[in-house]
Amino acid sequence: MKKSIVCFILLIGLFACKSDDKKAASHLDKARQYMNQGIFNSAKLEIDTIRTFYPKAYAVVKESIKLMYEIELKEQTRTNKYCDSILITLIPKAEILKKEFILDKDPKYQETGNWILKSQSVEANIGKSCIRTGVSENGEMYITSVYYGKTPIHHKAIKVSTRDGLFAETQPIAADGGNNYSFVDGGMTSEIVTYLHKKENGITGFIKLYGVNPLKVTYLGDKDFSFILDEKTKQAVYKTYELAQVLSAINRYSNELNLSAKKIRLLNLKIDQKK
Q1: In this structure, are residues 208 and 241 in contact, taking their beta carbons and an 8 Å threshold?
Q2: Is the pTM of this model over 0.85?
Q3: Spatial distance between the Cα atoms of 135 and 130, rounded to a whole number of angstroms
Q4: What distance in Å separates the CA atoms of residue 262 and residue 86, rounded to the nearest whole number?
Q5: 28, 43, 124, 236: least surrounded by Cβ within 10 Å?
């Protein structure tokens, strides 16, 4: 009697396993169909279903792992082609824009240089208070406030405002001898403050957005110093902003392209190991 019960239980288990194998295989077929149609997320969901509900369908689970690698390979190949197609259009555009800029870079001390509009170069703006802009080779835009006067104002930030009261303001930069430094020459004080990355705080975007209106620039320090932003400087901001957007996109898509290429090599290796 006991042997009969055991045999019956084993028989039920055998049928259950065969049933699971069949159901798992059905999900695997669906996953292949979705993959061939380029519907990768649905294909992955089918494979997740196999692993979750039919973990003992060993042969099918093994095949599903290989199929997952193939799906990921197709995904990365599509990403690779897309990034490459975008870069093909962006790189020539950047080269055209760069013609109005000069690259400020010392290979001995700098891994990344900065593109500066020719009209915004230091040499072109000696002996005057002004706003200068630039963009790194990676597409990170920055803004520099230059004060030139008889008495120091020790400014640490700048604010740009419209007549309607709208304004943007950089984060303050403490005097550090680097991004905020000053010197006296011939009885005249020069203060140069550079706002990088988050310290720029969207002020160049504000100038681009509201530049059709008169904009007042205020240096914030022990004493405030204000002037109306001239059209030439606005144009410099617009052009630098445009180059920054293109270079930033190139940097982003280049990184994605390199990452996808690494993933493709790894996935091909995994697929070969599963053969």
Answers
A1: yes
A2: no
A3: 17
A4: 19
A5: 124
